[in-house]
Q: What sequence folds into this?
């Protein structure tokens, strides 16, 4: 068995134990305009532009699997970035 020392960093271990997801809420399709973008090294993500005022833009990043989701969520928590995720999705 190999024991590794965890270096101090901004990454949060077990992020789903610290954050609760939000409940899914249905909205009308015309309320938002969707735009897909690709960032080299980070992959595809979606931008949702709210059509009514206030004009809010939501960044949606899809995870490949549970470990990728934990990595992304842990990064957001560790860097104190605004984030939300849909519970059980």
A:
């Amino acid at each position: 068995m190999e024991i590794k020392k965890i270096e101090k960093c901004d990454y949060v271990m077990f992020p789903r134990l610290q954050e609760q997801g939000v409940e899914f809420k249905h909205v009308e399709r015309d309320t938002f305009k969707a735009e897909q973008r690709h960032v080299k090294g980070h992959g595809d993500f979606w931008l949702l532009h709210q059509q009514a005022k206030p004009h809010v833009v939501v960044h949606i990043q899809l995870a490949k699997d549970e470990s990728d989701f934990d990595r992304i969520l842990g990064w957001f928590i560790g860097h104190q970035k605004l984030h939300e995720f849909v519970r059980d999705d």
The chain has one domain: 15-78.
